[in-house]
Amino acid sequence: MSWVKKHKLSAIEAIQYEGCSCIELEDLWKALHNSFNSAQMCEVDIHVLDKIPRKLAKEWNLFSK
Q1: C-alpha dihedral over 46, 50, 56, 59, to 10 degrees?
Q2: How many CA atoms lie within 13 A of 61 on its CB side?
Q3: Cα distance between residue 30 and residue 14, in whole Å
Q4: How far apart are CA 9 and CA 52, in angstroms?
Q5: Is pLDDT above 60 for 1?
């Protein structure tokens, strides 16, 4: 049965931080941590959100009591 054999994963591009690929969880955590800390005190222009078209709110159907 072919569905129980090893499946070749598609080629992906690793996340890069400071020119290095983050292929280990520790490297990825360091990249995310440092990226957050470097942007934490930056001002944000929330007016860019005004360009997003508004949509009407939709009502949810009840699915639980």
Answers
A1: -10
A2: 1
A3: 15
A4: 36
A5: no
Nearest 5 degrees, angle CA 45-CA 51-CA 53? Answer: 140
8 Å CB contact between 38 and 30 = no
Sequence-ordered alpha helix ranges (H) in the chain = 25-39
In whole angstroms, give the CA distance from residue 35 to residue 16.
12
Is residue 14 within 8 Å of residue 22, measured between CB atoms? yes
Does the structure show a pLDDT above 90 at 64?
Answer: no
Q: Give backbone dihedrals phi and psi of 24, rounded to 5 degrees, phi first.
A: -110, 150
Q: What is the pLDDT of residues 3-58, one digit of tens each?
A: 777 767 666 778 889 998 888 889 999 999 999 988 888 998 999 999 999 999 88
